[in-house]
Structures are given as structure tokens and as C-alpha cells.
Design brief:
The chain is of the alpha+beta class. It contains 1 helix and 5 strands. The protein has a single domain, classed as GSPII I/J protein-like (Pantoate--beta-alanine Ligase, Chain: A,domain 2), CATH 3.30.1300.
């Protein structure tokens, strides 16, 4: 009788131990799922920030190209007031410059384009006795 109780107790103990081992596996899987989710989220945030920085840099580069086009327009206007604009290739992008206005006031509009990004600068300059004076410089 003692052996019978002992062997039944041993089987019950083995069953409990097997169930506890299974519970440990479930807990381990739960923590692994949480760890994978957190890692995936961290990588997604990192990629999103990286793309934002790249877009910001391209937008800044487009502005620099637009400013280069506007400066070129002012230099051309100092040489001849008949300058009407052009398209320039500058540092991996393009600047499209148009110049309008009358003989005393010129308005130069320069649009810098890099990839999908474009920025526009408008410069108003006055011409008096052959002297070119910048009256305004603004981003549109």
C-alpha cells in the first residue's frame, strides 16, 4: 500500500512538473513576443526618423540651389538689364530663374529643385542710374 501511494504521488508530481515546464514555455513565448514587438517598433521609429532627416536635408539643399539661382540672376542683371532668366544645373539639382519687371524694378524668381523637393526665392531689385539695389529677398 505504501508503494502504491508512493508511485501514485510520484506520477502526480511528474504531471505537475510537466505542466510547470509547459507554463514556463508559455511565459517565455510571451516575453519573446513582447521583445520582438519592441524591437520592431524601435526599428520602425529609427527608419522614420532617418527618412525625415533625409527629406529635411533635400529641402535645405533645394533652398540653397534656389538662392544660387537668385544670386546668379542679380549678377546677370548687373551686367545687362535685359536678362530674362535661364535654367541652371547646380550641385545635383536645377535652378529655374525667371526675371520680370520694368526698367527700374526687376523681380527675379528662382526655384531650386532636388528630387521631389522644390523651394522658391523671389528677389526684388531696383535699378537707378546703373546701380542695382536689392530691395527684398524672400522665400515663397
Amino acid at each position: 500500500m505504501w508503494k502504491q501511494i508512493s508511485s501514485e504521488g510520484s506520477r502526480l508530481y511528474d504531471n505537475c512538473r510537466d505542466k510547470k515546464d509547459g507554463q514556463a514555455l508559455v511565459v517565455l513565448l510571451f516575453y519573446m513576443i513582447i521583445a520582438i514587438t519592441l524591437s520592431t517598433t524601435a526599428v520602425a521609429v529609427l527608419l522614420s526618423n532617418s527618412l525625415s532627416v533625409t527629406r529635411n536635408e533635400e529641402g535645405g539643399h533645394a533652398l540653397e540651389i534656389a538662392e544660387a539661382g537668385a544670386e546668379n540672376a542679380l549678377i546677370r542683371l548687373m551686367r545687362t538689364t535685359d536678362y530674362s532668366g535661364e535654367t541652371l544645373t547646380v550641385g545635383g539639382g536645377n535652378a529655374t530663374v525667371t526675371v520680370g519687371g520694368d526698367s527700374s524694378t526687376k523681380i527675379a524668381t528662382s526655384t531650386g529643385v532636388v528630387g521631389d523637393f522644390s523651394r522658391t526665392i523671389q528677389v526684388t531689385a531696383g535699378i537707378d542710374n546703373g546701380v542695382l539695389t536689392v530691395r527684398s529677398w524672400e522665400e515663397l
